[in-house]
Amino acid sequence: MVFLSRKKPPPPQPPSSSSAAPSLKIPQPQKESVEPDAVENMTAILAEVGCTLMNPYGPPCLPSDLHAFRRNLTTRLSSCSANPGERDHVGALRSVFVAGFSSYIQSPSNLRRVLSSSSSTTNRDESLARNLLLVSPIQLDIQEMLLEKLPEYFDVVTGCSLEEDVARLIINHFRWLDFIVNPNLFTDKLMQVLSICPLHLKKEIIGSLPEIIGDHNCQAVVDSLEKLLQEDSAVVVPVLDSFSNLNLDDQLQEQAITVAISCIRTIDAEHMPYLLRFLLLAATPANVRRIISQIREQLKFTGMSQPCASQNKLKGKVPACNAEGSILHALRSSLRFKNILCQEIIKELNSLEKPRDFKVIDVWLLILMYMNGDPIRKSIEKIFKKKVVDECIQEALLDQCIGGNKEFVQILGALVTHVGSDNKFEVSSVLEMMTALVKKYALQLLPFSSHINGISGTCILDYLEGFTIENLHKVYEVFSLLALSARASGDSFRSSISNELMMIVRKQVSHPDLKYKKMGLVGSLTIVSSLGDANSVPDFSSSQVSDCGEILELLKTSVDSCRQSNLALIMFYDEFATILSQKLLQPEIMEWIGKHLGEFESLFLADLENGKMADKGSYSGLEGDLWMNLDGSISPICLNILALASSSSESCCLQILPSNFLLLSTVERLTNDGSLAGIDALLGCPLHLPSSKYFAAASWQSLAKKQKEILSLSLYYAANWIRELLNAFSSQIDEKIGCISQATEKDVTTKLLKRLRNLVFLESLLSNLITLSPQSLPELHPYSESHVENPGKKNEKRKLDDDASQRKGSMKNNLKKSKHSNVNEKLRQPTIMDAFKKAGAAMSQSQTQLHGTPSLPSLNGSTAAGSVDDNCSDNESLIVKIPQVSSALEAQRFKFRPLLPQCLSILNFPKVLSQDIGNPEYKAELPVYLYLLHDLHNKLDCLVPHGKQQPFKRGSATGYFGRFKLVELLSQIKGLFPSLRIHLNIAISLLIKGDETSQTSWRDEFAMAGNPNMSNIVVSESLVYTMVCKEVLYCFSKMLTLPEFETDKSLLLNLLQAFQPTEIPVASFPDFQHFPSPGTKEYLYIGVYYFFEDILNKGNYFAWFTDDSPYACSFSFDLAFECLLILQLVVTSVQKYIGKVSEEANKKRNPGHFQGLVPSLHAKLGTSAEKLLRHKWVDESTDNKGLKNKVCPFVFGFPQGEMVQTILRIYLEASGSTSDLLDELACNILPQASLSKSTGEDDDACDHEFPTLCAATFRGWYKTLHEENLAILNKMVKTVSSEKRENCQSEATEAHLKNIQKTVNVVVSLVNLCRSHEKVTIHGMAIKYGGKYVDSFLKGSLKHKDLRGQIVSSQAYVDNEADEVEETMSGEEEPMQEDEIPLTP
């Protein structure tokens, strides 16, 4: 492949006599010393063959037939064609001709004449000298003459034309000769002359060598060029050009590559792109490793920038002498067309294990290959992430990579391109990188700010509409840093960047659309944070005064624009509070915000006299009471919620109440060294809410719709007020900054626990009201209405709209169903409700509605109330069930104010650390801790990557988890591990103990927190204990799957240490010859596994525990299932850890001692799964025959059936031989299951050993066995196919065929079950999976007669069944559900 492309000139054309003479001025002949006889003889010889040498009008005249001319001249001068007697004469004639030509060209004018084109030819290259060079008898003589003439013309002025440069004319005559008589001699002579040529002529000759020498004597050429390159490195480009164009064999090619590699360290930066392009394009599979390694080792990429790169001040202009940019371009273009280069680079970098082995060029190679696009992008991402995680690529290396390359325009262009990606993680990473660049190289980036702020071309501003709030912060941080750097610069052009940014932000803030207004608010407050920082103001005071004035004006503009939008004002307060929590602003700004917050008291507070309201008026016909007064009669104020909620003109004030208080508490903490003593009265002050009498059934029904809305809104605002109180005052306990005394700390702790109890009560009561009277609550969280629509908002809208649409279409659906009832009754799949009716159970309306949401009973232990009559009588208050989860309220949970991570410190309060399970104080606080545990679970759900989410996730919140960062949450949960362990132990102990506290005691406990003394507060203790256990298990599983726990070793070790048993019985792990030492990671993993396995075993004991709730056994099954999932996660984590340890041990040639850890835990996992499947989860000791239909988790709802499938899959995968176990279950166990409900037999009266296999779960078992069997077959087929390709022994293939025989037995047995099974669903699955099995079997080319025979016989039955199913479905107008009738293959 050529390095520099050169066009080969066309072959010589025959002359034309009619051609006009070229306009070449020949000087007048002068009298010079020549030999007349020799010249005359040479002239005569030329005349005889048709050439006129003495042409007074120009160069010699050549005949029209040049081929005849050269042929005749060759005949005259060649001794080979003469007779033996005439050879001496011919030799003498040739000598005379050569001597005459030599004498003739001694004159410079004559030399120019013979080198110039003939007047009778059309081709300007057909001169007399060119034609004489093609006459073989005299070619060598002419070559030597011309070469000897070269030194006489070395001093030609550079830049003259070819006609005036005799030396270049001579060299041009040597190119593209048809033949060379003596190439070796000519090459030696040419190399001798080349060594003394000036640089410009030397480059010309070297570049022309492939056209002069051709394929002759390449060895001498390469040797000479190597020597020449050692003497003068300035000729490296033409030398590389010649190396590329010469037809070198493998040995000479390697020699040329060696020469090029030796120049990497010494070559000038401007020539480096040519050298790299030559090396990379010369790569072959044999030398690619050598080339890549030498480039990585010798290329010093940092610090090669040209001085002019930093002197260019024109915005957006690229410097002309861009050496580094040329190098990057050369690398990228070469890598694009050579796949072996990319593969070798990836292989080379993958083998590096230490940070010192990585170089700056390595990072750039990865970037350039990634920029070239597919198909290796994923490989590059994988290796880059791996090396960053392994700390091989460190931040210092990336700094060198950027610091050594000052041409930021290329970097910015690539970053802006990635900013437009649809992947939010990619956008976030790019913006973080851009922020890091601006922080370190703000001044250098100012000339290229047009690529960022949108003055020219595509910029970040073009993509703002699709950004999340988090990414908007990063974008405006970049803008603000540039503006701050521009203001510090004296350049008027650069300072205009700040003005442009201000203009953009003001336009966005003033926009009527909330989306753009939010963008402007983020931008405005980011500018305030950057320019108004008290610790980083410019040195000159005039700039400081100007900045303060402009910032205050921007703040006033932002507040005024938010007056008509409460959500915008909420966002302004939240963003400002976030800024103040991180830095101190200038005094003028703090004074302005203090004046603005002075309106809080007049807006939201009311005065009290002796603990009572001075004005007890009516608000929209509603009376009010003081709720939740923690300070008693000494409280001077109350929160005036009812008055504001009932006033239509001021109801909006309550919407901004939480965010306004957040900013108030932040300013208070900032100005008082972290203390909130100045506003501590707000923590205990009462709330003015509607009277509790309206929550009686009769009073509620008598209220108007507007009054019901006021009641719901009052409770809603009260709950969010308490949430912000918890956020603010929990910092007094959590931060440990010594800002409060010990007595004050105790008082704050007590009030926080009471406020949490208030919050639990308010949300439970609000849940009832929202269920009874659905309404859309106002949004108090500005980020819920982000650019990507919140999923909770869709659920809310769908739920509010479904009621009317269902009522509208109910009559139409009933008519349609009655029309086809006779046909559908025979074909319809029996439902769960049919099973209940058949068993004689009476179903209430609420139970029927709840069938659509089967997960709710597992959360609150009761069904949703559809009316007041379902909850209580007319004279009683609404039932407040604790804990209670309402789907109507959960659908709007995203509108609530979030609890910050610092609130989780309440889990570590002193009372929690007591392990006395009989302590009534702890039992009374357990619902409070359950609330916080559920909130922690929701936060962790948002952090776990989607690929690692567990399939069974109940009660989790929406995607946004509040205004805090991951680092804040991780730092908070580090101290929660021991408390989580204690909560779990106590909850399990209370479940086993089974003691009950009277409901009166529970009501008294809630009344002590200032809650209204309502008689219908119902606390389900068993439900609370069970949910505490489940929430702790959820949190542990989420934390174990967080990427931060995988990378942070100390974090993972602390988590494992917190969940260790009191003692690990070594006898439970007999597979270890040497049990791990205490404190090691292996020991901790074993301890965690045994801890949760022990909980799973305890679950078998309290599985029989029952109370008034009909779902107690269902909770036990859920708890056991969660324990099993955690055991599986522990085994997976151990596998990853052992894999890393084994890899390191193999490198050190020191095998680990605990290779049996994973198989041992895997076997125990299979045993635990088997115990769950063999356990009988229905209480047979009770006399209630209908109890099984109420408590059996496999009859009530589908999620438990899916759990059984998961347990069965774990059981199969963890068994020693999955094929044998599949064969046993499919051929022996499954046929014994009770499949027909028409026999009237009891489901419990089964002949097999798996009570979890019943009529309700048969479908799940059947599907799981099919899927696992198909997976084993596909694996076996791949193994057999690979062994066939590798020509392995037939014994191994026969062994695999025996295993395939087992899969055949399984599929045949499963398909044959259709003969005795009446369910269409089972027939459909047999068609689906049976067809897939046959496809996989045939694609694997398994030519085994017995196996094929069995498959064909079973498939024939399946095909027959498929026809019957199609005929059955053809009579229906409405198709069945997709999950009921699987599609045929």
Describe the structure.
With 1385 residues, this protein is mainly α. 60% of the residues lie in helices and 2% in strands. It is built from 61 helices and seven strands. Strands 2-1-4 form a three-stranded antiparallel beta sheet. A two-stranded antiparallel ribbon has the order 3-5. Strands 6-7 form a two-stranded parallel ribbon. The longest helix is centred in the last third of the chain and has 37 residues, at 1112-1148. The two termini are 52 Å apart. 38% of the residues are buried. The N terminus and C terminus are likely disordered.
List keywords for this structure.
mainly alpha, two-stranded antiparallel sheet, 61 helices, 2% strand, Fanconi anemia group D2 protein, nucleus
Quickly describe the structure.
InterPro entries: FANCD2. By secondary structure, the chain is mostly helical. The chain is built from 61 helices and seven strands.
**Average residue-wise pLDDT:** 75
| Count of extended strands | 7
Radius of gyration: 45 Å
Report the sheet with the most strands, covering strand number, pairing sense and barrel closure: 3 strands, antiparallel
Total helical elements: 61
Protein name: Fanconi anemia group D2 protein
InterPro entries: FANCD2
Region (Disordered): 1-36, 781-868, 1361-1385
GO molecular function, one term: DNA polymerase binding
Write the layout of secondary structure elements.
Blueprint (H helix, E strand, L loop, with lengths): L35 H13 L17 H12 L9 H18 L3 H8 L12 H6 L5 H11 L16 H9 L8 H13 L3 H15 L4 H14 L4 H10 L4 H12 L10 H10 L6 H11 L9 H4 L11 H15 L1 H12 L9 H12 L5 H13 L5 H9 L4 H12 L4 H17 L1 H4 L4 H4 L15 H20 L3 H18 L4 H18 L9 H21 L4 H15 L6 H11 L2 H5 E5 L2 E2 L10 E4 L9 E3 L1 H6 L4 H21 L9 H4 L2 E4 L6 H6 L2 H30 L7 H31 L18 H29 L1 H7 L4 H7 L6 H6 L6 H4 L19 E3 L4 H4 L29 H24 L22 H8 L3 H17 L5 H10 L8 E3 L1 H21 L1 H5 L1 H10 L22 H19 L12 H37 L8 H18 L12 H5 L1 H4 L1 H17 L3 H12 L28 H28 L4 H23 L7 H20 L5 H26 L15
Parallel strand pairs: 6-7
Antiparallel strand pairs: 1-2, 1-4, 3-5
Helix pairs in contact: 1-3, 6-7, 6-8, 7-9, 8-9, 8-10, 9-11, 10-12, 13-16, 14-17, 16-18, 17-18, 18-19, 18-20, 21-22, 22-25, 25-26, 25-27, 26-27, 27-28, 27-29, 29-33, 33-36, 36-37, 37-44, 44-48, 46-48, 48-52, 51-52, 52-53, 52-56, 53-56, 56-58, 57-58, 57-59, 58-59, 58-60, 59-61, 60-61
InterPro entries: FANCD2
Keywords: Isopeptide bond, Nucleus, Ubl conjugation
Family: Belongs to the Fanconi anemia protein FANCD2 family.
